[in-house]
Amino acid sequence: MKTVFSILILAFIALLPISCSDDFLKKDNQDIYETEDPIILSSQSGENEITMTIPEAGNGEFHISVYPKWLVLETMNGTFENGFATLKYTINQPVSQSQGDYLTGTLVVSVGDLGLIKTALIYGNIGSNTNQPSGNITDIEGRVVDVAYNKVVDKMVIATQNPNRLLVTQTTSGASTVINLDKSPQCMEISQDGKTIVVVYSIAQLTVFNLENNMPLRDYPLDCVPFDVILGQNGWCYISPSEILDFNLRSLNLVTGELNSGKNPPLSHWLYGKSELTKIKGKPLLASKGLLLVDISKVIPNDTIDYWADSAEKIWPLNDGSRYFTPDGQCYFLPDYIGSLNIQFGIKTYGRLTLSQLKINSIDQCEAKNSFFVAERNVAEMYYNMNGDNIIEQFSATNLNSIKIFYPSMTAVKTDGTIVPTHNEVHYVFTNNSGTKLFAIRAYTTNLEVKHWSVETFDLN
Length: 461
Prior knowledge:
7-stranded mixed beta sheet, Immunoglobulin-like, single chain, 5-stranded mixed beta sheet, mainly beta
């Protein structure tokens, strides 16, 4: 990606007041023109070039008067051709700088009889800015509330509010379509064959969509505002309520529309509102807020729930259901369902991911790479991690050792008139079935506490 440095003298604030540190620029009584915005130099750029476009320069000569020590220029002098000139450069990156940091400096170009052109420079892992969007980043309109990925068909669905819709992407071809919704989505799940998706809303309703033609198949009324939904077997799905004092797990037959409120039979342990649900084929249904194992082998949940004392608010089970991870990187054996009324203690530990940061936001198991891809953060709670530097770390599924670190790119954001590189926090991470692509669904927050969402794609080849 080439950097284009366009200058139209009349559009600039010319002859700006010069600070004491700029006095040396005035020694030849040259006019000084200062650009409004900095030049963004990205480490993702394939071609390290700055193209200067200064119509008033004509075919005049130029000389680099000031540059930062980290910028290594191929030449300090040159000639414009009809107002165009190119600066080729390399970066002398300080050893102490991490990929999550950025460099700043000043470039001053002396242009013939025209004067001095002064501009700020910013260099770093910057994926996009208002003038130069990156090809591996796709902006998302609205607020992301859930993301689902099906590796059978390599299809990703992003649910957003304001606007209310589903963004459906076939990640192999990159083709995307939109399903517009007349209600605000809350969460969703794609069927195992990738042909349908169930969506619940911020009201007591559920809809099934056909992902082959993006058309709704059926609406179902519920008796609660749902928090999470999971597909089971034999055409049933299960719904946790959003009310914190609603302790009942709902069961819905997607064929007949029959809804079981979970009150009959009453469950032996409260589900608690806002519980996240997880289902693995052939295994009990899992719920957070402790570790709850719900037997759904006979479709309607068994009234006896195994409750294992565990403080994890979220869990990520392996594809085969043998183990699961918690946000601190611990890996535990998933206990068998035993149908006990007693609280269970002492879940056996398998191992631990030695995280480079404090907590986990999201995990994806990539069988093609025999790896786990883990989005990490440096604060205990996601809510407080506004624009914090975070990473995606690849771990071996065999020994849980770290293999590689991926750094989400920053976004050049203009705040209060100043462009600043801003970190994006990764909320969801997925790989495709072949293990060739990594997708990070991320966001940065402005000073108005508005999240700006995008998808960044990493090449794993």
